[in-house]
Fold:
Amino acid sequence: MPHQVPIIDATRCSGCGRCIAACHLNLFAFETQAWRKVSVLHSSERCSACNKCEARCPIGAIRMDARLASPANLQRRITPVTASAYGLGQSIS
Ligand code: SF4
Ligand code: SF4
Structure:
């Protein structure tokens, strides 16, 4: 089975921090994107795919996905969505 990692929809993340507290490997950290605090996954290759973060998110902003597991794909997925949602027209890093 392909390794899955959590994909965070940064346009929906409320910055509550529950996924950060849930991860036993401390793979999440807050980042500021478009003047909002959002949770971002780091070191996705270390993820054990335990699903705790997905289960703890109160608004369903996290889903497990194998197709987007590489760091490059995570960046492509998250950054343009966040920027376009706030009408910025450029990537935020
Ligand atoms: S799936 Fe588990 S190990 Fe992976 S980021 Fe979420 S809580 Fe951490
Ligand atoms: S639990 Fe969900 S809403 Fe809360 S910080 Fe994590 S991704 Fe964002």
Summary: The helical segments are 18-22, 52-56, 71-85. Residues 13 and 47 are 20 Å apart (CA to CA). Residues 6, 22-23, 25, 27, 41, 47-53 surround iron/sulfur cluster (ligand 1) (CB under 6 Å).
